[in-house]
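Lecture notes, structural biology module. Today: joint structure prediction for complexes of two components.
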Amino acid sequence: MPRWWKPASIWLLYAVGFVPAVWYFWLGATGQLPGNAVKIFEHLLGTWALRFLLATLAVTPLRDLFGINLVRYRRALGLLAFWYVLMHFSTYMLLDQQLNFPEIGKDIAKRPFITIGMACLVLLLPLALTSNNWSIRKLGSRWNRLHKLVYAIVLGGALHYTMAVKVVTVEPATYFALAVLLVAYRPLRPSVMRWKKERRAQGAAPVASRRMG
Amino acid sequence: MPNKIPRIPSSEITPEEFYFNRRKFLGGAMGAAAASLLPLPALAANLDYKPGPYGTEEAWSTFADITTYNNFYEFGTGKEDPSNRSADFRPEPWTIKVDGLVSKPTTLDVDDLMALGLEERVYRMRCVEAWSMVIPWIGFPLSKILDRVEPLGSAKYVAFETVVRPEEMPGQRSILFGALKWPYLEGLRLDEARNPLAILAVGLYGRTLLNQNGAPVRLVVPWKYGFKGIKSIVRISLVEEEPPSTWNKMAPHEYGFYANVNPAVDHPRWSQASEIRIGEGGFFGAARRDTLPFNGYAEQVASLYEGMDLRKFY
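The predicted structure, tokenised, for the full assembly:
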């Protein structure tokens, strides 16, 4: 693959990542979303935010367990999740509540699923702001600690979705299960890595002895 | 009680939508002809009816919105599931059993219902999810059926039941994530059921109900949230105790038995103070309007609840 492909593919991911938002905004703005267009758009943005969050968290296990290395796309996936959460909230604030701040304030304070959603957006802010090489260098190991917040955010986001629906159907249940699974993998990771290392050592040993013999 | 007949006759209001939707009907009819060997949903037929009271001057929601943006969990939880997944449903033949604490229990078929004298009722429909429509129902007062079966003095409530047909209703088939318990149940106090606003609808927009709207017969109680309007009814029973109501049993703190439209009592997860009128305003400046007590029918029904704490009996 040519050398320019790597950086270009990241920009391509950003471009493709925004397609659902742009496409549905176009449909909504031109009156092509049936029924409650604003709600459809709002929910679509939320669902995509959750998808990008899950994709961000899937990068590490994919590499550990299947040898698929997508680390170079992780920042883009995380930032796409952030932009979708921000668009999701903006749609709620501008198009749905039409800047009715007393109502918005009441929603955030009184309704647990909205409180949780809002908390996730607030927690995402420092992560988005530090998603650049300069911050990584500057913050050192503190950067890693800070970005562990994403585990709370993905669980909060999945919970927000599950609590928002009238009945828990397959879709929210699946998102919630994936979020739990991806977060639960983290404490198991040292064991997985140790097991892999041991297996590799065992696999290498006979080769070495054969060579010696 | 004011018997307001809409100033503009319905024939003056409809044409635009009707012409728009006529194509859809023609398309459906041609499709039917082409695939006449396959089992097909009953196509909407024209109904004979007269104009009825309690009209509104608000614009009617379009036929397309009324028939594609639905909550009818028997066909799935998505808004478009009822229109997309109800083709297998057979609303004919159909009977409704009317029994319980009555002197003359009976079983009615759809022809019996049609013979009760149909009228058009243009009602606002306020969903508990904070959206609303204006729907030109065709139906008859529920009291006509109650009069026929003669409730006993001990009858205090009316219980309603939806059909259970998992083979025709995909939403009733899911086991692991079954949305609700079937059959769907609803109930009214007897005096609510006798209120002249309460109707059983067999049609809308001048035609028989489509499957997604609760064919062949459904309840319409416009001062209550939409979920009270139980669809595809197979049984109406007069009972002494408050009957179960599906959403109330499922989440009692979110959905009350009465479920009267009340802007002062929020749903725990959203405000009920305002609503989006489907199909108006569009994407920017969507038509959010204030929700009215009893959905604007306080004059007709507020007296039913005199002395009741509507925060407690939501």
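Point to remember: Residues 208-213 of chain A have pLDDT under 50 and may be disordered.
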